[in-house]
Design goal:
The chain is of the alpha/beta class. It contains 5 helices and 5 strands. Strands 2-1-3-4-5 form a 5-stranded parallel sheet, sandwiched between helices. The longest helix has 18 residues.
């Protein structure tokens, strides 16, 4: 499976040793498309799963309903301003859950408010990145995430 494919429910496929499952929690279709394209450019072997709101993210992570067979992600890219349940609540629930807290969460959002940055780190975000507006800058940010979190960092095994 390449990074341009999204899925809502599937068994964890056999990946090459260095491929990972990424959960993108994003309600903006344009940002989803940009993220897919950027990951496709850098590492085509990763699986990018997309959910559009905070409630769906938690259902995905807890393997509930249509996400019963969803893979447990190795990395979560989380927007702050989401419908149903916002990113602040989602992050807090992830980090308070013994089974999920090991998953690194990169907050990827349009907000650069000092209060948001502070609050997300207080909730144990692993990283906070302001989304750039420019396409090329957005691709550079995703490439940097890829280079750091998926190449340099040793993620915990499932």
């Amino acid at each position: 499976m390449n990074a341009t494919q999204t899925t809502n429910c599937r068994m964890r496929p056999h990946h090459p040793d260095n491929a990972i499952d990424i959960l993108l929690v994003e309600d903006n279709p344009g940002d989803v498309r940009l993220t897919r394209e950027a990951f496709k450019e850098s590492r085509g072997t990763n699986s990018l799963n997309v959910v559009e709101d905070g409630a769906e993210a938690l259902a995905f992570l807890n393997h509930q309903g249509k996400y019963n067979n969803a893979p447990t992600p190795d990395l979560i890219l989380l927007d702050l301003n989401l419908p149903k349940k916002d990113g602040r609540e989602v992050l807090e629930e992830i980090k308070n859950d013994k089974a999920l807290r090991r998953i690194p969460v990169v907050v990827l959002t349009t907000s650069s408010a000092a209060e948001d940055v502070f609050n997300m780190y207080q909730r144990h975000a692993n990283c906070y990145i302001k989304k750039p507006i420019d396409f090329e800058d957005f691709v550079n940010v995703i490439t940097a995430i890829d280079n750091f979190w998926l190449t340099m960092v040793k993620l915990p095994s499932k």
